[in-house]
Amino acid sequence: MKELKHNFQKNILNKRITVVGMGVSGKSAAILANHLGAVVYASDLGSSEKIVLNAMELMRDHHIASETGIHSKRIYDSDLWILSPGISASSEIIKEASKKNIPMVSEIEFASWFTKCSIIGITGSNGKTTTTQILNQIFQTNKVVGVIGGNIGISFSECVLDELLHPDKDMIYLLEISSFQLEFISTFNPLMAVYTNITEDHLDRHHSMKEYINIKKRLVKNFTNKNLVIFNKDDDILKSVFNDSKHKTLTYGLNSLEHNFYIKEGFLFHKNSNEALLHTNDLKIKGKHNILNCLAASSCAEAYGININEIKNALKKFNGIPHRTEHVTTVKGVDYINDSKATNINSVVVAIKTYTKPIILLLGGYNKGGDFRLLIPHIKSNSVKTILTYGEAGEQIKTAIGDAVRLFKVNDLNSAVKDAHSIAHPGDIVLLSPGCASFDQFNNFEERGDFFKMAVNKLSFL
User: Fold this and answer.
1) For range 363-378, the mean pLDDT
2) pTM over 0.70
3) 3-class DSSP assignment, residue 96
C-alpha cells in the first residue's frame, strides 16, 4: 500500500477522495472530508434502504456524489481511499486499488488526522463496549469530558467534525476499536490502549488466530515510551504478547493482588491507598467478566489522572449497556435475557456462567467461523438444559453440539422465542446469546436485540 506524505494528512483541500462503504462510518467520513474541502465520491456495493437513504442524504445535504449497488471505474480516479470497516483487505477492489498505487486508510485513521484531543483506544474480543461505557461514566468530571465513538455506533469522523465545529480543550476520545478498523491504519496513535481479552473471533475474515492477533496488535504499532498499554493479565494470549514487550504496560486481573486495582474477599481494593473502594455486590452489573471490565476502566482512568473517589462513584452508578445480559422481563416466572451483543462463542460462555438458574439458550445467526464444539464442556458444567438453534448457522450448531444437550432447530428467532416460551417452566431463564453475527436476518445486533425484546413482550398477551 502506498505511504502517505505527512502534508497530505494535514491538507486535503481539493484532493479527490473516494469513500468506500456508506454505512455509519463511511457516511460520516464523506461528510468530514467534504467539510475539509476535498472532492468526495462515495461508493457502496450494497443497495439496502439504509444505504440508499445515506446516499440521498450525502447528495441532498452535502452535494456529495455517490453510487450504490456497484463499484464503477470512477472510484479509481482518486488521490485517497477512505475505507469503511466492512471492506476486507482481501476484496478485489482493494487489490485493484493497490495495483493502481492508491493510498488507502481506515475511517478512524482518517479522522485522527484532524483532532487535537487525546485518544484512549479500547479493543478486545469481548467486553470492549462495556469497558468503553464505564470509562465514559468515569470521564465526566469538571476537568475532563469523555466522548465515546468508534465501533460503538458513533463514528470517529462524526466526533471529529463536531470537535472542529465546537472545539473543547478538555475533551478526550474513548474509542471502541474493532479488528476491522485496524486493518488500514498508518499513523493512528492513541495515548493509551486498553486490551480486554483475545479469543477466537472474526475468523471468517482474518482466516487464522495468528492473523487476528496480529491485527489487534496494530493498535499499538506507533507507540513510544510516552504511550501506555493496559491489558488483562488473566488472558494468556495478551500475557504472551505484552509480558516481554518494549511498551510501557499496566496490568489488571482477578488472579493477582499485585495490580493497582484488585479483588480480595469480594472487595475492590486500590493498592496505593490500601483502601477497599466497594464490594462487588455494590456493582449493578454482575458476573466476573463485568468485574474485569470495571478493573480495566479503573486502571485506565487512574493512569490518566482521574480521582479515586470519582472512579468509585462512577462504578457504583453504572447500569450496564443494552443487549449485553439485559433483563427484558419476567413472564409466568421465566426470566428473558437479551444478550444479542454476544456474537462469538466466548461471549456465550461468559453469559451462561453468569446464571445459576436452568437456561434455555437461543443460538444462531451468521457464523463468523467459530467452532461451536467449544461450547460443549461449558454447557455440561453449567445450567443449560435446552438449546434452540435458528438461522443460517442453525444446522452447523446442531451438528457441532450433537447430543450433548436437548436441542431443537427452528427457522428463525421469532420461532425460537415462541418455542422457548412453550417449553420453559417457572424459574427458568430464556437467554438469547446467539454466538453469531446477525446479518442473516438483521442489519446488526441492536436490531436483533430489539426484535427479541419485542417478541418477548408479546408473550404476555398469549
Assistant:
1) 93
2) yes
3) helix
